[in-house]
Write a structure and sequence with these properties.
This protein has about 290 residues and is of the alpha/beta class. It has helices spanning about 5-10, 25-40, 65-75, 90-105, 115-120, 175-200, 215-225, 235-240, 245-260; strands spanning about 50-55, 80-85, 105-115, 135-140, 150-155, 165, 175, 210, 235, 265-275, 275-285. The N and C termini lie far apart (about 45 Å).
């Protein structure tokens, strides 16, 4: 890329990334995350009543990975839906899954991305190739309760910027980095303020902000816009890079292991991605 380690760290905060093996698919990554989530929650596959799989890097037009993931997890004829949104996919799936819990009872949300396949098509482009990694995460939503309660969510989309961040089949990722950062740094704080205002909360009251891990500087800018110390924003982008829609759930898993939900503490999830799609979700420890 004709650049340096220091430059990459300074512009993005990234120090390491993970790449899946060549034969590993988005569905395979999703299955691993789903199995891990169910095991940690002590829930048998037969108890899952709905599966939502978010990914913006699936290998084919159809069927999407959800059906294959459901079969590999042993979900039988449980409905499995794809949420083909990059970066914001896991947030949208969490928000939709929370709304659908009343109808389905137990909803498994999985986000998986193999971004290495896309960036390797233009491996010397330092504006994109050094950003992305592969990974998967999962969360279980249940009408019966759990470690936290989803209080509310807000979701937004604006197709006027659809060309500024796109990935076409067989072509390298195209990104207008300046536009993405500018729009994200404006839209995400507004969505969080909208969410908290409706809930009668202030940003200063939030115990932790769990963000899509796109860029460390973007996370800091959003913290500054909300007048919240950056330390309140959990970050692990230095370890994994930008894993698109998987990053929010990977961050949530690591934050949960290190700190976790505590009774009454509010936590905000937020993401911004191609489309543009963005939003925020408020949860509270039980």
């Amino acid at each position: 890329m004709e650049t340096t380690e220091e430059w990459i760290r300074n512009v993005s905060g990234i120090e390491e990334r993970r790449y899946a093996a060549e034969e590993e698919t988005v569905a395979a990554l999703a299955v691993s995350a789903g199995q891990d989530c169910l095991q940690r929650c002590g829930v048998a596959p037969g108890q899952v009543r709905l599966l939502l799989v978010a990914s913006g890097s699936a290998e084919r037009r159809f069927p999407g990975p959800a059906a294959s993931v459901a079969a590999a997890l042993g979900l039988g004829e449980t409905p499995a839906l794809d949420v083909p949104l990059a970066s914001a996919g896991s947030l949208f799936a969490l928000a939709l899954g929370a709304q659908l819990c009343d109808a389905y009872g137990t909803v498994l949300v999985v986000a998986a991305e193999k971004m290495s396949s896309a960036v390797q098509l233009d491996a010397t482009n330092r504006g994109t190739a050094m950003l992305f990694g592969d990974g998967a995460g999962a969360a279980l939503l249940s009408a019966a309760g759990g470690i936290a309660r989803v209080v509310s969510s807000v979701l937004h989309s604006d197709g006027a910027y659809a060309e500024d961040l796109r990935l076409e089949f067989g072509k390298p990722l195209e990104m207008n980095g300046r536009s993405v950062i500018l729009q994200a740094s404006r839209k995400v704080p507004r969505a969080i303020e909208e969410l908290l205002s409706a809930a009668g909360r202030a940003p200063a009251e939030i115990a932790c902000f769990l963000m899509h891990q796109a860029n460390q500087h973007l996370i800091v800018r959003i913290a500054e816009a909300l007048a919240v110390p950056p330390e309140r924003f959990f970050s692990n982008i230095h370890l994994y890079g930008n894993t698109s829609s998987a990053s929010l759930l990977i961050a949530a898993r690591e934050w949960s292991d290190a700190h976790g939900f505590r009774h009454g503490e509010p936590v905000v999830f937020a993401a911004f991605g191609a489309g543009f799609h963005w939003g925020a979700l408020l949860a509270e420890g039980c």
